[in-house]
Amino acid sequence: MKTARRTVTLLIAGLGTLMAIRAFAPPRRVFREVRKRAHLEDYVEHSHEAVVHTHQHPHVTHNRREGADELVGEWEHLTALHLHEHNHSAVTHSHLPHENAEHEHLGEAHIHDHSHPTTS
């Protein structure tokens, strides 16, 4: 039963991954995504030092559709980008090992005070 459940989990994760990853993604990346989404890799505890840095910072807002647009979905996501310096406090946590921490950070959601973006 455990093997069957694991096979189904891998199949579902694999299908979702294949839909989410471009067709030309390297096979290694596809397999890593399947293992990550199916929680089949070990988490590694590690620490990140406190840092203040600058990169494109996205904001996503939920906007309620009105009129005829409601037929295709009640809500839509609108994204805006801006650049400013912001900080991240030091943290120790566990997750799948980083392949490229700096690049991965660009896609991670985080919150900061826009009045004081470099202090936590």
List keywords for this structure.
120 residues; alpha+beta; 29% helix
Q: Describe it for me?
A:
- This protein has helices at residues 2-20, 27-37, 101-105, and strands at 44-48, 51-64, 75-88, 91-95.
- Strands 1-4 form a two-stranded antiparallel ribbon. A two-stranded antiparallel sheet has the order 2-3.
- 29% of the residues lie in helices and 32% in strands.
- The protein has two domains: 1-41; 43-120, no CATH class.
- The protein is built from three helices and four strands.
* Radius of gyration from the alpha-carbon trace, in angstroms: 19 Å
Termini Cα gap = 48 Å
Shape: flat
Trace the largest sheet across and list its strands. Answer: 1-4
Structural class of the helices, strands and pairings? alpha+beta
Write the layout of secondary structure elements.
Layout: H1 2-20, H2 27-37, E1 44-48, E2 51-64, E3 75-88, E4 91-95, H3 101-105
Antiparallel strand pairs: 1-4, 2-3
Helix pairs in contact: 1-2
Summary of the model, kept short:
The chain has about 120 residues and is α+β, with helices and mostly antiparallel strands.
